[in-house]
Amino acid sequence: CDYRQSTQPQNNWVFTQFINYLEATEVFVNVTYQYISCVNNARRGCSTLHTTMYVYEPEDSRSNNERTDPANYKSNPLAVLGIDDGEGRGENLTMFKPSSNANGFYLGIQDTGTCGSIERVTVYYRIIPSRTDGLIYYPEIPLPPVESTDTITRTAVCAPHSTGFNLTLTADSRGVVEGDPSCLCDPGYQFESLAGGGAECTACRPGQYKPSLSNDISCLACPPNSASADPATAVCSCDVTFFRPPSEPDEPCTRPPSSPRLAITSPPIIIGLDIKVC
User: Which of 107, 130, 149, 164 has a CA 20 to 30 Å removed from the CA of 191?
Assistant: First the structure.
């Protein structure tokens, strides 16, 4: 910035690299800066113009050579960052909505008189952060535009070896999420809590079983006369020559009755009946 030596108006630019929109429905740009007053500077190099921020949305993010061409920015100003009514530090927060046919954008900031110094540029969009609660993973959800009645839908994810129910989540522009997902450990796996609020479904050990979809039932020892040789067993297998109905996985396995031994056959007993005809 050479306004003290130059007699020409300032025309200084700074440009960002390409910034991807990702899932943003609206983009916020916060800029902190310093600027110098022209009140006590009579040279023409310090004018009464502004420091202005522009946005450029290229059709191709690889067009890096075009990002430093001021002509691409002049048609889309975002905000005036400072005016020359005094020296000091300023801050500006502005918002814009992405174009439907653009994947991202560049920011260009032009100093045309105040001799501004950019301290920090923060670009962000509003989200509900991802989190884990028990067996349920809640994904990151980008929020709809402020004051919009739109909603955004995402799907919760269950931990491995569990089955989910009602996994649809809906978020509005206020950040209110609706949905009541649940995840239950599969047969052969039991629920175990983890540090930090998470959980997992761990396999039952050999010799154990768990027959149902549940987080309340732990792995159980196989009933008498049955066994499980592999982990994550839902139903223990009966030992050789032992049997059990498939509908009774928690019952012991038993042998069928033996054939009769020392059977005694008695002669038939004939019972006489008196028949009276009416």
Answer: 130
